[in-house]
Amino acid sequence: MKKQDNPTRGERVLIFAPHNDDEILAVGGLIQRYVESGTPVKIAVMTNGDGQIRRPPFLPFFRADFVKLGYKRQNETLDALEYMGLGEEDVEFFGYPDRGLSHMWTNHWGRNELYYSKYTKTDHSPYHNSYTEETPYCGSAAAGDVRRLLLEYEPDVVFLPHPNDSHPDHWATNGFVLYGLEQLKNEGYEKFETVTMLSYLVHSVKFPWPRGKFLEASLTEPSDLKRLDTNWVNVPLDFRERLHKLRAIGKYRTQTQLMRKYLISFARANELFGIVPSLSLNNSVEYEATPNLSQDFILNEEEDEPFLSYLNPKRRSRIATLRRYPDIKSVSLKRNADTLKLSIDFFNKYRSGNAIQATLKPFTRIGNGKGVGGSHAFRFLKRKLYYKERRIERGNGYDFESGNKSYRLSIPMEKINNPSKLILSITLSRKGVPFARSANRLINIR
């Protein structure tokens, strides 16, 4: 069978897991097939899941307890993968902070702004077996590790979390993998142009459903993601594969003690993977093809200008609903020669006490084609715009305004290094606590 007929088919497979257990929950059935067919498989675990100690609040939390838990969860991964036929050499533990990846992606990118974990009580990995020894807790280090592993292993199929996964660590892992792969393409490594990226979902509304042991039931596309542009790939599993996956899930004892009914829900009659397209923003009104929402720009008939628009799923957050926080409906982009214009529409009313942050990771070809821009975060709070904690006034290409259910921001292209591509995401927060995120999406700027 040709690869275009079966996108899961590959010669070297790399699976990125935010935590210990995600690799089996998402790809446990296919891992068995890869092993049986002799296809090399590598697992990269971003965190050691060391932030899940449950104890009464009057008892103290010590660094050693969390690190011990991290090593214990590593051993559970090794036990599960050994059951599947893989060895210790097939796993890399990156050692980044549990519940900290989204912060590293948005606000702790550089090595001079490290993230401090309240669990491991450090800003560097305390684990002796991290992929990079004593790796700093920052986004650029995580993206660098992803890039290095991709370059060393040279996979042609990569599994990563779906960009609309509601868990912040999964959301950020998607961004880091996307960034590392695009960085290599930007540096001229043509072999990565044909890599197949398959996204898996672990955290979403009523997914999987129903919860519990249902080996004969199938995973179905989550209802809140149906309007998005993901092309879903269904992989049926035979009964033996389902049963082995169920038993492998049981190896993660620290997690099955907490949420067994939820975890075993992933041992189903199939596995579900999404292909998420990159988006394109064209600077010209000359467009002959039929535009598709979330796949290409849309022609604004009133202004006769093209713009890119993509949807965000409605999040049924009880806290956001009760407190009447805004929720992202869609994100749109438009540009002229010098300015990038960002628009955000909300399902409900926006209030000035809620912060809006636009995070942009630009890719700019420099000199011999090598070189990637850094991270740019623009934060709008109480009708004021900030960049790197410095207030920005209107003018010199900057403009911004908030409406009843919308927000508009204009950014000079020069400020973000005139990129040919960028990764964009939006984060909404209240008093420093995020409550809504848009997907990290790769956008080609033509």
Question: How many domains make up the 3D coordinates?
Answer: 2
Helix content: 10-25%
Number of helices: 8
Q: Note poorly predicted spans.
A: 283-304
- Rg, Å, rounded: 22 Å
* CATH superfamily placement of the largest domain: LmbE-like
CATH architecture verdict of the largest domain: 3-Layer(aba) Sandwich
CATH topology of the largest domain: Rossmann fold
H-E string: EHEHEHHEHEEHHEEEEHEEEEEEEEEEE
Spatial shape: globular
The overall pLDDT, averaged over residues, is: 89
By CATH reckoning, the class of the largest domain would read Alpha Beta
Q: Report the β-strand fraction as a percent range.
A: 25-35%
Q: What structural class do the secondary elements suggest?
A: alpha+beta
Task: Describe this structure in a few short sentences.
With 446 residues, the chain is of the alpha+beta class. The chain has two domains: 13-275, LmbE-like (Rossmann fold); 279-445, Immunoglobulin-like, CATH 2.60.40.10.
Element layout with pairings:
Layout: E1 13-17, H1 22-37, E2 41-47, H2 63-84, E3 91-96, H3 101-106, H4 139-153, E4 157-161, H5 168-186, E5 196-200, E6 231-236, H6 239-249, H7 253-263, E7 270-275, E8 279-281, E9 297-300, E10 305-311, H8 318-322, E11 328-335, E12 339-346, E13 355-363, E14 376-381, E15 384-387, E16 390-392, E17 399-402, E18 406-412, E19 421-430, E20 433-437, E21 441-445
Parallel strand pairs: 1-2, 1-4, 2-3, 4-5, 8-21
Antiparallel strand pairs: 6-7, 9-10, 10-11, 11-12, 12-18, 13-14, 13-19, 14-15, 15-16, 17-18, 19-20, 19-21
Helix pairs in contact: 1-6, 2-6, 4-5
